[in-house]
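Moderator note: this is an archived Q&A kept for reference. The question asked for a predicted structure of one protein chain; the sequence and the answer are reproduced below.
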Amino acid sequence: MSDPCDALKGPGKAYCEREPGSSGPPGTGTGGASDHVRTLADSLIKKINGLVAPDHGWAPAKSNSTLYEPFLWLGQHLAVAIFVCIVVVCALTAWQGAPRLKQMGASTGWTLVAVAGMASVPGAVMLLNKAVSGAFTTAFNSNESTLFGAISDDMQHGADSGNPLAILVIFSALVVALAFAALVFLTRQLGIMAFVCMAPLVLASLARGGDTTAVKTWAMRLLGLMFAPFALLLVSPFVELAKGSLVVDAVLLVAADALMLRMIFHGVPYFGPRVARAARSYVESKTPSPLAHAVVRAGVPDFYERENTPRGPRTVSTPGRALSEDRGILFAAYGLSKSDRSGRLTTASAVAKEQRDKSESAARREQLWEIRRQHQVNKPQTAAQPDPAPTSTPAPNLQGPAAAPPDSGHPNTP
């Protein structure tokens, strides 16, 4: 007798041939779905790793690249022009002797260093970027004791690896982490590219005589951008505690999201605080979850934009003022004076500060009124207590000592 299922084709035949007691067609159970999600989770982990610390960045890798070459030409000519000016000044004031010869020698040496450094900056940044990418991969995705390695291992051998809800939780955490990693990638790559392109203009300031103030500031900003991904090392000590549970791994990923926001806030110069605050505002406006609000607030603290205060939210400079401050350092390295402008709060920060001061004043007034009410309540009790009995003291003699009676044997003299 022929099989009646042979008359069917496609999914209908699969349903007809399924095992008795099974709830679906072959290959569509929980195990099949988990396999697909695990594969997708592994691809998400690779993308997060590639976005946070990529092998290749947007910055020019060679000095003859189309983007870097105009800046290199400008920096080299600027350094040579400064050197020529110093030689002319030293020649006109050669009668001063040794000081001018010393200045000209220093300018000659630092000009050569600046020109050589301009051509080597792109290659050095490219090598450093590869080293950072390799170190980050080793620290976070090399074996089962790292964060991403532990997540991949728990997806297969964890205690809750067969639980669809746990897999869904870790998958959602990976998707959120991917969004923050994309934001980190965008801000870091734009910042690194900008600082590499402005390297010739900063290094040209060395031709004046070796003032390294602007170069140190530039290097500090660039290295901060390069090594920012290592802020995620703060979650590494907790990987062993979370190993074996996908839910705890998701908690670590949430902590990594907050650290990535902190990375943008502190690591990206000039625009980092504003970008991080925009991300926080977007999450708070789109998500009513208190947990999501707590995570973004941990990553992006409240702040004002200008000066530090002894308490309350911190204050950071606006992008324009931060650029102006660093431009003043660069001008000083060239020997140019720049007037410092007094800073003031932006309109939004001034309104927020005024509202905060009003709320603090209202809270203080309420506290004072509460103290006064307590004092009024305690005051009748104090008045009801009997006063101690006064002690009797002799009245003072206000008329002085009494005069002695006159002697009866002698008349009174007028």
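Archived answer notes: Confidence is low (pLDDT under 50) at residues 21-33, 398-414.
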